C-alpha cells in the first residue's frame, strides 16, 4: 500500500432543509389552517481516528467530501429528514490543520477519538409555527441554514515508542528488519528508505514499536530532502535510537550533523532520551571499533553501544536498553502509577 502522510481536502457540511408553507385542505374542512412542517438539519462533518488504517492514501484521490443536505419540510406537519453525517476516518496520530497547514484544528492521538469539523445547517421552520389568534393563515416560513465549507490539511505523525534517526545508509532499515517482522527495502546506497516504516519488537516478553524514517541530511530541519516531514514522525516517540555508521571516516561528524538537525527542528526532539549506537561493526576490526567508540563518546558525552544488524552482534543488548528507557514511562502514562522494577 502506498504510504501518504500529508494531503489537503475540501469538506462541506449539508445545508438545512427549508420550512414548508402548507395549509390543510380536506373535504368538509373549509379553513383547515397551516400545517407546514420543519426542514431537517444538514449533515455534520466529523473526523475520527482509527487504528484500522495507517496511511492517508484514501484522501489523495478523494479530495472532496460533502455531507448530505437536510430534507425540506412537508405538509401535514411532516418534518424533513436530517441530512446524513460524514465521518472522515484517519489513522491514529493524524493532525488536522487549516489549508495553509499553520493552525492546528485537532490532534487525533487516540483510537476512537472524534471531533466535529463542520456543523450542518439548522432546519428551517414551517408556517405552522406562526399561526396565532390574529393570524390564522400565516404564509411565513424560515429557510434552512446554509452549509459550511473549508479546506483542511491532514498530516500524519506516526505513533511509536522508539524513533530511528541517522544519516542515510546508517543501517536503520537493516536494524529494523533484524529485530521485527517489518521488511523495509535494504540496499548499499543512500535513501533506500523513502517512506517511514513501523516494526513491533519483542524482547524478554516486553513489546514496543520502532519507527524507521528516511535518512536525514544537512538542512533537514528546513525541509531539505523532506527532512522536516520525516522528523515529524518521531515527534511522539518516547526515545530516539541514533545509529551511526561505524565504517565511515568521521563518525563524530556524522553524529553532530544529525544532532544539529534535531536541535534546529525543535518540537522537543532534542530533549528526548537518546541511545547512541555504532553500526556495521562486523566490517570493523578491534582497533577500528575502539577508535569509533572513543570518537563518539567524546562527541556525545555518553557511552555508545555497538551492533551489527547482519550478524546480530549486540542487538539484544540494545533492545534491552531501549526497553529499560521507554517501558517504565509508557506504563506510567497508561496506568498513572509506576513501580520501579516492574516493566513487564
Describe the 3D structure.
It is a single chain. This protein has 344 residues and is of the alpha/beta class. The protein has two domains: 151 residues, Spo0b-associated Gtp-binding Protein, Chain: A (Distorted Sandwich), CATH 2.70.210.12; 174 residues, 3-Layer(aba) Sandwich (Rossmann fold), CATH 3.40.50. The chain has six helices and 14 strands. The strands form three sheets. The chain has a six-stranded mixed sheet with strand order 10-11-9-12-13-14, sandwiched between helices. It has a five-stranded mixed sheet with strand order 3-1-8-5-6, with no helix packed on it. The chain has a three-stranded mixed sheet with strand order 4-2-7, with no helix packed on it. Helix 4 packs parallel to helix 5. The protein starts with 5 loop residues before the first strand and ends in a 9-residue tail after the last helix.
Amino acid at each position: 500500500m502506498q504510504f501518504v502522510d500529508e494531503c489537503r481536502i475540501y469538506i462541506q457540511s449539508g445545508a438545512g432543509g427549508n420550512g414548508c408553507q402548507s395549509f390543510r385542505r380536506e373535504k368538509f374542512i373549509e379553513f383547515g389552517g397551516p400545517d407546514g412542517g420543519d426542514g431537517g438539519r444538514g449533515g455534520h462533518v466529523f473526523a475520527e481516528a482509527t487504528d484500522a488504517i495507517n496511511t492517508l492514501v484514501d484522501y489523495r484521490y478523494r479530495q472532496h467530501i460533502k455531507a448530505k443536505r437536510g430534507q425540506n419540510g412537508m405538509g401535514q406537519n411532516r418534518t424533513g429528514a436530517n441530512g446524513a453525517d460524514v465521518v472522515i476516518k484517519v489513522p491514529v496520530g493524524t493532525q488536522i490543520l487549516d489549508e495553509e497547514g499553520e493552525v492546528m484544528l485537532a490532534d487525533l492521538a487516540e483510537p476512537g477519538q472524534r471531533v466535529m469539523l463542520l456543523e450542518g445547517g439548522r432546519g428551517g421552520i414551517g408556517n405552522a409555527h406562526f399561526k396565532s389568534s390574529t393570524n390564522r393563515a400565516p404564509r411565513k416560513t424560515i429557510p434552512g441554514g446554509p452549509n459550511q465549507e473549508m479546506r483542511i490539511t491532514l498530516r500524519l505523525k506516526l505513533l511509536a515508542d522508539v524513533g530511528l534517526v541517522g544519516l542515510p545508509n546508517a543501517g536503520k532499515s537493516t536494524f529494523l528488519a533484524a529485530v521485527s517482522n517489518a521488511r523495509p527495502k535494504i540496499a548499499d546506497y543512500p535513501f533506500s528508505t523513502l517512506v517511514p516504516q513501523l516494526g513491533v519488537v519483542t524482547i524478554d516478553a516486553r513489546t514496543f514499536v520502532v519507527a524507521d524514517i528516511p535518512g536525514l541530511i544537512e538542512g533537514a530541519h528546513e525541509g531539505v530532502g523532506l527532512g522536516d516531514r520525516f522528523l515529524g514522525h518521531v515527534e511522539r516517540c518516547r526515545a530516539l535510537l541514533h545509529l551511526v555508521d561505524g565504517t565511515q571516516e568521521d563518525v563524530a561528524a556524522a553524529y553532530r550533523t544529525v544532532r544539529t538537525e534535531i536541535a534546529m527542528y525543535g518540537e522537543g526532539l532534542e530533549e528526548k532520551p537518546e541511545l547512541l549506537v555504532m553500526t556495521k561493526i562486523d566490517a570493523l576490526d578491534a582497533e577500528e571499533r575502539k577508535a569509533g567508540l572513543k570518537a563518539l563518546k567524546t562527541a556525545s558525552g555518553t557511552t555508545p553501544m555497538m551492533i551489527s544488524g547482519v550478524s546480530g552482534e549486540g542487538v539484544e543488548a540494545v533492545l534491552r536498553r531501549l526497553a529499560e528507557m521507554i517501558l517504565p514511562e509508557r506504563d506510567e502514562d497508561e496506568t498513572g502509577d509506576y513501580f520501579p522494577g516492574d516493566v513487564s
